[in-house]
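Q: Got a minute? One more chain.
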Amino acid sequence: MPEVRLVGPNGEQVGIVSIGDALKLAQESDLDLVEVAATARPPVCKLMDYGKFKYESAMKAREARRNQAHTIIKEIKLRPKIDPHDYETKKGHVVRFLKAGDKVKVTIMFRGREQSRPELGFRLLQRLAEDVTELGFVESQPKQDGRNMIMVIGPHKKKAEAKAEKAAARAQRDGVTAGEESADDSAVDSAVEESAPRQ
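A: Always. Here it is, folded:
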C-alpha cells in the first residue's frame, strides 16, 4: 500500500504512514488530508481544514496584489517654441510625477512648418532631461513618431519607496504639529492660571 509523509495540523512531523492510516487519522481529528508536496518521495500530506486553507491562501494573494506597486505613466505635452514660464510649469509637473515614483512620457507636438525643424524638439527634450536628472533618467531616448517626438523619463525611486517617504514625511509633520499644539496648550493653561483671581 502506498505511503505518505504525514504532517500534523500544527506542523508537527507524524512520520511515514500508509494512506489508509493517514485517512483514518484525518477522519478521527475531523480534518482533511491534503497533499502539499506531490513530487517528494514519499509525497507529503498534511492534516488541515481545507476550506480554511483555501481562504487564507486567497487572502495572502489579495494582500500581495494590494502591496504591489503599479507603475503609472504620466504624460506631459509641450510645443517646440514653448514660453519660458510655461516650460517651468510643465517641468514642475514632471518633477512632481518623478517624486511620486511615476514614469513620465514627454511629447513634443509639431505643427505645420515646425515639422521641418525636429532639432528644436530634440534640444527641448534634452534640456528637460538635464533639468530633472536628480530625480529621473531617460528611459527611452527621443524619437520621432509622426507629428510628435516622444521621450520617456523613469524615476530613480520606485513607487513603493516614494510612498513610504511621503508617509514618513506626513507622520513627522503631524508629530511636529501635535508637539507645537501641546506647547501652545500649556502656554495658554499657564496664562489662564496667572490671570485667575487668587483667593
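A: The domain at 3-67 is CATH 3.10.20.80 (Ubiquitin-like (UB roll)).
Q: Perfect, thanks.
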